[in-house]
Amino acid sequence: MPAPIRLRELIRTIRTARTQAEEREMIQKECAAIRSSFREEDNTYRCRNVAKLLYMHMLGYPAHFGQLECLKLIASQKFTDKRIGYLGAMLLLDERQDVHLLMTNCIKNDLNHSTQYVQGLALCTLGCMGSSEMCRDLAGEVEKLLKTSNSYLRKKAALCAVHVIRKVPELMEMFLPATKNLLNEKNHGVLHTSVVLLTEMCERSPDMLAHFRKNEKLVPQLVRILKNLIMSGYSPEHDVSGISDPFLQVRILRLLRILGRNDDDSSEAMNDILAQVATNTETSKNVGNAILYETVLTIMDIKSESGLRVLAINILGRFLLNNDKNIRYVALTSLLKTVQTDHNAVQRHRSTIVDCLKDLDVSIKRRAMELSFALVNGNNVRGMMKELLYFLDSCEPEFKADCASGIFLAAEKYAPSKRWHIDTIMRVLTTAGSYVRDDAVPNLIQLITNSVEMHAYTVQRLYKAILGDYSQQPLVQVASWCIGEYGDLLVSGQCEEEEPIQVTEDEVLDILESVLISNMSASVTRGYALTAIMKLSTRFTCTVNRIKKVVSIYGSSIDVELQQRAVEYNALFKKYDHMRPALLERMPVMEKATTNGPTEIVQTNGETEPAVLETKPPPSGLQPASQANDLLDLLGGSDITPVIPTAPTSKPASAGGELLDLLGDLNLTGSPVSAPAPQIAQPSFLLDGLSSQPLFNDIAAGIPSITAYNKNGLKIDFTFERSNTNPSVTVITIQASNSTELDMTDFVFQAAVPKTFQLQLLSPSSSVIPAFNSGTITQVIKVLNPQKQQLRMRIKLTYNHKGSAMQDLAEVNNFPPQSWQ
């Protein structure tokens, strides 16, 4: 049989292939020749054939039929055969295949071989693909080589020991005596692998960590080695861009970080050397920046002095000025982790962080935005909001929603005045109204309602903001609501904060009618506008007939929502005109709603359906007969049951409409702004039979909170409240936090309860759980438990994390008895 071609010739031939099919043909032809050679037990060219087979394996072609040939090469006495055999074993074999166990005896013999290079091959193979059985059988030989004086073998034995410990952690103590003298070695290769071995042992065993801290005095040894590296002169063997062995320095810094974590004595011993590394390392090259970054992480993780922490944050501040985008991103991420503990030190770099908002790289821009919001406080809120509003105006669409939400939260928390708060939120709605969260509209309406002295100023600003521009729907909705409530202030020109404008009643109605007919107006926005026009019938005096005409036109609208409102409002004008002033009077000051958004989903046993939590009807005898009959006739029935205001309202099947619309409901999807019916002062019979106590008991000190879920960095806590009006209703507030280093996005919480319960899920505050526990998502659950049974719940969590879709189910059975008894 002719001699097979050499590996070099095969590579040259394959590279001449012009198509994939031509390459496959060449490979198949060569594989057939190799199989024939293997069948003939050709020992002369076995090494060459296996080498060619490994090259084909690297190209992605099957080469499993060469596994046994690798074992034959390992058993050979020739070094060249052993080298290819061990390489083939590392590439073609793993612990899932029983064939690898046949190598155990060969590896054991080679570990005791007289040639160090053969021993090195065996150590590399065992450290690469040794199974737990092989590691148990050969750990003794590895431990002997770890004590040898040969530095070439010691460094390979140390890495092999790391693999053994990962596979069989209980063998860790076997290597403990051998580690005592490893750090006294002069060879940098041995030092590097020794630090890797010690790091593995400390990470896997708290007992080992305590042993190395107290008995072995490991920290002083590492400090000595690190100091020698910093102070040593130029060494061409270890120099990288003017820095002595940066790889060893980084490994030592990581091990110091583990040893100093939560340990005062160890942290004290390494403070000085960390300060030296931070001040003496050259930053002009990337190598120095890598060492400085590891130094910063170590300083922040141990119990370091305050001055050292400030030095670390200043290093990160210098990173922000670096031209390399990766270094800037790393600095922003690190500052975001430390801003909670070292807020004042990070504040010094606020201007640099704000400048990063203008960066072209979207990753840097997002991190800078998150860090900017973390830096906002009562002292700098005006300046930071100015920068963030400018960013909101110019940023890409994918940033606008998160930026708008952050501005809303910061403004609510740190607003220096109500006028500034209102101006800021209106600026956001004007700039990025289409991107704001659904709860922005009711929250702003609540803010405006509670700022009594700002009503005239606000309605004038909103009127001017929507003149001729209806593209920002949330802004138009707020403006319509305010014009409906405070249109009389707009027309009278009572604004003191700025120069009043002269507006007539007809001009105000022109704007609202334009909103109604605009193609850009959503159905919800038209509902706001129609209700505003109706309210103006009690605020304006000269245009009531025009308002009646507009309302009657929409009684035949193809939009069922508008049609229903118009029919009800027409009924008010005709049959119940004596009730109209009371039903449309100005809204009272609102309390902060417990809901987290206008959209409410009711889920019963996993199925989504509308539901209403009801209380017992009040005695009808408490109401004056004639006025009560008028009201009941309008509702289309005599069975009125007050409902919890945050629940969606069920619609009676009568042409008369529903009570909540007549009481100023602006958003039939359940906006927290709507349905203040029980609070209207006139006529007085509307209050009869309704309790004056709050609907929910907000003093929950007697009900302990629980942790319902804690896995993969996601933690969900339950806190409880009981309803005052209906003891069978339990209100559960969930708080979801994220301790990982990346945000969890598209978060959805679902829950199901047994059939004897009724469950209502309100909207979450957000769909993104920020990383590093820097924020939470809240969501409200209401549970009706009329039979007072023990509460049980099954929850389903779905979210995206690190580019993967995550999903998990869990049972919650540890509800405190006070929450359901």
UniProtKB/TrEMBL annotation:
Keyword Cytoplasm: yes
InterPro entries on file: Adaptor_Complx_Large_Subunit, AP1_complex_gsu, ARM-like, ARM-type_fold, Clathrin/coatomer_adapt-like_N, Clathrin_a/b/g-adaptin_app_Ig, Clathrin_app_Ig-like_sf, GAE_dom
GO terms classed as biological process: intracellular protein transport; vesicle-mediated transport
Annotated localization: Cytoplasm, Perinuclear region; Cytoplasmic vesicle, Clathrin-coated vesicle membrane; Golgi apparatus; Membrane, Coated pit
Record bears the keyword Transport: yes
GO cellular component: AP-1 adaptor complex; clathrin-coated pit; perinuclear region of cytoplasm
Topology term for the membrane: Peripheral membrane protein
Membership in a protein family: Belongs to the adaptor complexes large subunit family.
Protein name: AP-1 complex subunit gamma
Lineage of origin: Eukaryota, Metazoa, Chordata, Craniata, Vertebrata
